[in-house]
Amino acid sequence: MVKRSNKIFSFFLIFIFVLSTTGLGYYYFIYEAEPNTISKPKQYFGLGGWSYEFDENTSQEIISSCLAKNWTFLLISINTHELNQSHSQYSSQSETKALDLIKQAHEENISIHIMTLEDPVFCERAFHDNALQRISEILAFNTKYPRTPFDGIHLDVEPHGHPNWNSTASWTEKNLIFEHWLELLSKIRVLLDDYKADYECVPVLSAAVAYWYNERTINNSLERGDPTTLHSYLDVIIPMVYGGIGKTAEDIYAKIEDELPYSPMVIGIGYEEFSSHSAMLETIAAFSLKCENSTNFIGISIYHASLIE
């Protein structure tokens, strides 16, 4: 297990609770370098969500939509190979667009987290090297553009989505998939920690996880799905509480209260769970109040079919 300090990439976590229209508190990571060394936003999370529209929309359209929603962070899917000049899929247009997106986002104090490894096949050891190449491509981008780097790396590789994790699989088989996923996280953690030794523009590492990993660990089905283990590799855990199970603040809180004391968390909710946009905002406000005494609650991430409406 990787040993880490309680600091997240040498950032101080300062909790500032501000009642906004959503009631969501804002949490800030203050960088310890000299002022203006890196043009990164002070807010890393808060209210935000996932996006899969990098290729379809302009940077201005994406940022305008974030501003209309009062989002302070974005988890956006981008093909990392298109950012790598030595890769056959390299696209100067994609590289320029990613740079422009980050610049516009930072001007509006929105953080950009690149989403990658969006296939459970990356859990398999045979694909770990490919996964690490993609992480290295992100770090190479940050090295090339240290004043406008990606603020975070968001992993969307979910072990429970692997085709061998099915209704006929035993928990022994499921635990093997899960352990290979943890092994991948440990390799990424080492890569980031090595990078941190030489560079300032180190991205925050987060991952989407099933809220029930800890529950299955408590009942001895999963061997190591507890938040303490996950946080040994990840800076921020994003449990997904949707799919018909997160319609009220009480529903959402019941799914994450056993994990919240052990790791910084951004809670994933589904837009389609709610009868209206206002109902979702009211639920977010009520949930935020439930978590107001927890410094580990650092935001809400909204899953929606489309960012641009």
Question: Over the alpha carbons, how many angstroms does the gyration radius reach?
Answer: 18 Å
Count of helical stretches: 8
Ranges with pLDDT <50 over ≥5 residues?
1-42
CATH-derived architecture: Alpha-Beta Barrel
Measured distance between first and last alpha carbons: 43 Å
What features would you describe in this structure?
With 309 residues, this protein is α/β, with parallel strands linked by helices. The model is unreliable at 1-42 (pLDDT under 50). It has one domain: Alpha-Beta Barrel (TIM Barrel). The chain contains 8 helices and 10 strands. Strand 5, helix 3 (128-144) and strand 6 form a beta-alpha-beta unit. It comes from Candidatus Lokiarchaeum ossiferum.
Could you outline the blueprint of secondary structure elements for this entry?
Layout: E1 12-16, E2 26-30, E3 46-51, H1 59-68, E4 73-77, H2 92-107, E5 111-116, H3 128-144, E6 152-155, H4 171-196, E7 204-210, H5 213-218, H6 227-231, E8 236-240, H7 249-256, E9 265-270, H8 277-290, E10 297-303
Parallel strand pairs: 3-4, 3-10, 4-5, 5-6, 6-7, 7-8, 8-9, 9-10
Antiparallel strand pairs: 1-2
Helix pairs in contact: 1-2, 3-4, 7-8
